[in-house]
Design a protein that fits this description.
- By secondary structure, the chain is mainly α.
- Helix content is 78%, strand content 0%.
- It has eight helices and no strands.
- The longest helix has 30 residues, at 170-199.
- The chain starts with 7 loop residues before the first helix and ends in a 16-residue tail after the last helix.
- The model is unreliable at 210-215 (pLDDT under 50).
Length: 215
């Protein structure tokens, strides 16, 4: 009996193994926390390349792109963490502030949280897709969520679905650790690519550096 590695089952298992390896390496590079920015940029950059050529070596490409995206991703990640820390400090201060007018700063903090969350959602995919200066990346990331609002809703839907499954189905939590982050990023990458095509024109696309898995 001939062993057919091109059968649908074995192709699925090959993809599953590759995504699991990518997921674990990505999580490992996020452990220092300050490297979350370049890790997210590299992950989306890898997913964009995978969408065009699904036989690329995912882990190899991720590590190459992690190095390529490190500087901008590191700076943007630190800025994002600093802004998030300011918001958390503001919420903690508001919680200890006993005054009738305290709801006004709460509204401001909630708006700031939404804006920062949406900006961070687009910041690293934009960095991964387009070759722009750091200031331009932030400007585009702040503008794009509102310009491409249907895209933002689709991304929110993916996040809500993933979080709900992980919360209500304990076994899914294990799967999220094994390969869930990479799969969610892949699903989002399709939305981002659609959004960039529909609402795009944000600078030159970064040149591909992928190597096919069979090369």
């Amino acid at each position: 009996m001939k062993f057919n590695t091109n059968a649908p089952f074995w192709r699925f298992m090959d993809t599953l193994v590759r995504f699991t390896a990518l997921n674990l390496v990505c999580l490992a590079t996020m452990i220092p926390v300050v490297t979350i920015g370049p890790a997210r940029a590299a992950l989306y950059s890898t997913m964009f390349a995978y969408d065009e050529h699904d036989d690329i070596r995912l882990v190899h490409e991720y590590l190459r792109r992690f190095k390529r995206e490190f500087l901008h991703g590191f700076v943007s990640g630190l800025i994002t963490l600093a802004l998030a820390a300011v918001i958390v400090f503001g919420l903690a201060f508001w919680n200890a502030w006993d005054a009738n007018v305290s709801y006004l700063p709460l509204i401001v903090l909630i708006i700031a949280t939404v804006v920062l969350t949406l900006t961070a959602e687009y910041l690293f995919p934009l960095q991964a897709r387009f070759d722009n200066p750091l200031a331009t990346q932030w400007k585009l990331a702040a503008m794009f969520p509102w310009r491409a609002f249907p895209c933002s809703l689709a991304l929110l839907g993916i996040d809500v679905l993933a979080i709900a499954l992980a919360y209500f189905v304990p076994f899914v939590r294990v799967l999220m650790i094994l390969f869930g982050v990479a799969w969610v990023a892949y699903a989002k990458s399709l939305v981002f690519l659609w959004g960039f095509k529909r609402y795009g024109g944000f600078g030159p696309i970064e040149q591909p550096t992928y190597i096919n898995a069979h090369d």
